[in-house]
Specification:
heterodimer, A: 420 residues, alpha/beta, D-Maltodextrin-Binding Protein, domain 2, 2 domains, 8-stranded mixed sheet, 10 strands, 45% helix, globular, B: 320 residues, mainly alpha, MetI-like fold, transmembrane (chain B), cell membrane (chain B), MetI-like (chain B), transmembrane helix (chain B)
């Protein structure tokens, strides 16, 4: 009898397990289908953001979304390091975001992925930084709303450089020399990220070249750029660079924790650095690579796009208009309350007192004097092609000419697909 | 579920159960039961394996960028492009080097561990569990531990701290591919994660070797140690060894997680799956080329498996 009852036990356990297993998919159907929330009008839209490093940004975005009463807004916070991969694959599925942040890239427009937002931007066009409008415009139509501009440059510890009697470098040679002088047993002289890819564009600009020219043809394949790549190789092998740090260039930890006195980073991290280092902090743009070059700053940033292929494209457009065109309070809060970003709206930038004095003001000056904005024709595949050049010739001892030739093949193939 | 309710009584006889149970009608028929039990699996297999394979084959003949429903037929262009792509062909070389090292290394290490643990007089269960435990760890979690704490490039990384005691300069284990220290990181990680599992397989096989064989060998004058190991233990482990090698080769083909997590944004140290991920699912979203690469890879694996089967004789029936 006891055997019988244990039999029953096992069976009931199995049955319970099967029941649970059967419920699983049902439960899965019930939640996380991108339609959760169910706002007042029963409509909902989904937005994608990459994980901002600064505390409070996620809550802020959710708070703004709550204030929208025409639809429930579901925020997906993508913590992965390769946000673009996650975004691009999600866009192909039914679960695609209706609204997402990204950088202007023309392939998204050519493939009909992002909606034309001219009608919501045009009325306030004059209030935007003209460069931000230009970088989102194709054939007279504007495809994205710029939320924030993020200049990237070097941060340095004034006291450390003074002690070593070093002026902020203005040429790449001086930077290499400074890195050597500042390297001690415990501290490396310079940090420009673990893969060094953040400085690819500034290196090109500071060599007097550009990614693409005005006719959308290759402009990076110059003697100056080759010289710059060779110098970067020299720097990489010098042993004066901080490498394999626990955090990457976009995180202020390396300079804040004293692993290095000079770090390439973005204006977003300025508040954290100032809090940790006080006045012992200065900034300088990417130095000149060649005599004919000019110092440069990457004016990165993020923009809002509407998924034209989504089911809620019109609603999504309404939402973008509401938050990123009309709600100036939120836009200001987003740009200034967490990390520091330069507001692309001139009316907001004009009243941004936090950016008017001290180091933030210097950052704004670098942004205006040396900044290069996104080129909408420079797409992800081209970015990857130049990252490969850097990987092969800076981190490996490849021949820059051969690597650039290889990149030319890839980039020309892309250009042909995009521009014919 | 309900089919099981009446089984309790009939259970002892179930081994020779009659093929038809008229009183249960359709439910009793073995055909129905066959489909009942296999269909969930078959449906899953069709939806998640066969349909994607077919779809991928179809995609490989189209220009499919940023779409999985392409319309522009390009013939064998994608295949041609992939075969010319030095990154893809390079990934095949990377994989070959990796497999040529990791398969024998894991085989030897797990066999060695099994022999050691098998000899223990006490705490056998403890050591067996300790060596097996890493198997439960995910590759991603382990890769992060390896990257951020053990092989971190800063002075307080574990390996750099140890090397520092001997006055050796900090090494950038992952960022600098020259010399290729990244292989050390990848190989130690995989050995740590895998060896325990294969050790258990070897342990089971070792315990299955009849003691009479060792007794007979001892009587015939075989010295304990190498001679016994070479002529008794190793031949007796042949079936397990073959299976372990096959499993290891398969695991090497599937290598993805630790490469993906340890080596971001490189042009080296990418096995084919990582390379294809970047082609198809990563930033370039070229499903046509990615699918073509997958088909090429499938053909290669097919050839290798056939050749391997010929040499190792696995599945020929005379095995074991």
């Amino acid at each position: 009898m006891s055997a019988m009852s244990s039999n029953w036990d096992r069976r009931s356990v199995l049955r319970a397990a099967a029941g649970l297993a059967a419920l699983g998919p049902l439960a899965a159907c019930g939640s996380n289908n991108g339609r959760s929330g169910g706002g007042s009008s029963g409509k909902s839209i989904k937005q994608y953001f990459h994980a901002y490093g600064e505390a409070g940004v996620e809550d802020a975005l959710k708070r703004y979304a709550k204030g929208y009463d025409k639809a429930a807004v579901n925020t997906q916070w993508i913590t992965s390091a390769d946000y673009e991969s996650k975004l691009f694959s999600a866009l192909l599925t039914d679960n695609a975001p209706d609204v997402f942040e990204f950088h202007p890239q023309i392939q998204l427009i050519k493939s009909g992925q992002v909606a034309d937002l001219s009608d919501i931007i045009d009325p306030v066009k004059s209030d935007f930084n003209p460069a931000d409008i230009a970088s989102h415009t194709v054939d007279g139509k504007i495809y994205g709303v710029r939320m924030i501009d993020d200049p990237q440059f070097f941060f340095y510890r004034k006291s450390v450089l003074e002690k070593a009697k070093i002026q902020p470098p203005t040429t790449l040679d001086e930077l290499i020399e400074a890195a050597a002088k500042l390297t001690t047993g415990k501290v490396k002289g310079l940090f420009i990220g673990n893969d060094l890819h953040a400085v690819i564009n500034p290196l090109i600009w500071s060599s007097g070249a550009d990614t693409l020219d005005a006719k959308n043809q290759i402009a990076y394949h110059t003697e100056g750029v080759k010289e710059g790549i060779k110098k970067m190789r020299q720097l990489f092998t010098s042993g004066h660079l901080l490498l394999d740090a626990p955090t990457d260039y976009w995180d202020p930890s390396a300079i804040v924790q004293g692993l290095t006195p000079i770090q390439f980073c973005g204006m977003w991290a300025m508040p954290v650095m100032q809090k940790a280092l006080g006045d012992d902090l200065g900034i300088f743009p990417f130095p000149k690579v060649t005599d004919s070059g000019k110092q440069s700053v990457t004016n990165g940033g993020w923009s809002m796009f509407v998924n034209a292929k989504g089911k809620n494209a019109d609603l999504a457009k309404e939402y973008v208009k509401w938050l990123w065109i009309e709600q100036k309070k939120y836009q200001e809060d987003f740009a200034l309350s967490y990390g520091f970003h330069i507001p692309p709206r001139t009316s907001i930038a004009a009243t941004a007192t936090k950016l008017k004095t001290g180091l933030p003001a210097e950052g704004v000056k670098l942004f205006n004097d040396f900044g290069h904005f996104d080129n909408i024709g420079w797409t992800q595949a081209m970015i990857t092609a130049l990252e490969d050049v850097f990987a092969n010739c800076v981190r490996k001892n490849g021949d820059p000419e051969a690597a650039l030739d290889q990149a030319d093949t890839t980039v020309n193939r892309e250009l042909k697909k995009l521009f014919g | 579920m309900s089919t099981t309710t009446t089984r309790g009584v009939a259970r002892p006889a179930s081994a020779k159960a009659s093929p038809a149970r008229p009183r249960r009608g359709l439910r009793g028929s073995s055909t129905f039961n066959f489909w009942l039990f296999t269909s969930p699996f078959l449906i899953g297999l069709t939806v998640f394996v066969y349909v994607p394979i077919g779809w991928s084959l179809w995609l490989s003949f189209f220009e499919a960028r940023f779409t999985v429903t392409p319309s522009k037929f390009v013939g064998f262009d994608n295949y041609w492009q992939m075969l010319q792509d030095s990154k893809f062909t390079g990934s095949l070389v990377t994989f070959t080097v990796f497999a040529a090292f990791i398969v024998p290394a894991t085989w030897a290490l797990s066999l060695g561990l099994a022999l050691l643990v098998n000899r223990l007089r006490f705490m056998k269960a403890f050591f067996r569990s300790v060596f097996f435990l890493p198997t439960a760890c995910s590759y991603v979690a382990a890769a992060l531990v390896w990257k951020m704490s053990m092989f971190s490039g800063v002075r307080f990384g574990l390996m750099n701290t140890i090397l520092g005691w001997f006055g050796v300069e900090n090494i950038a284990w992952l960022a600098n591919p020259d010399p290729p220290w990244y292989w050390l990181v990848i190989v130690t990680l995989r050995l740590w994660l895998q060896a325990g599992f294969y050790m258990i397989l070897f342990l089971a096989a070792l315990q299955n070797i009849p003691p009479e064989l060792y007794e007979a060998a001892a009587i015939d004058g075989a010295k304990p140690g190498w001679q016994t190991f070479r002529h008794i233990t190793l031949p007796q482990l042949r079936a397990t060894s073959t299976a372990v090698i096959l499993l290891l080769v398969i695991a090497a083909y599937q290598a993805f997680d630790e490469f993906f997590n340890l080596l971001a944004k490189t042009t080296w140290g990418r096995p084919p799956l990582v390379e294809l991920y970047y082609t198809a699912l990563g930033e370039s979203q070229d499903y046509g080329e990615g699918s073509a690469g997958a088909v090429i890879l499938t053909l290669l694996i097919l050839i290798v498996t056939l050749v391997q089967g010929k040499f190792l004789g696995f599945g020929r029936g005379d095995d074991k």
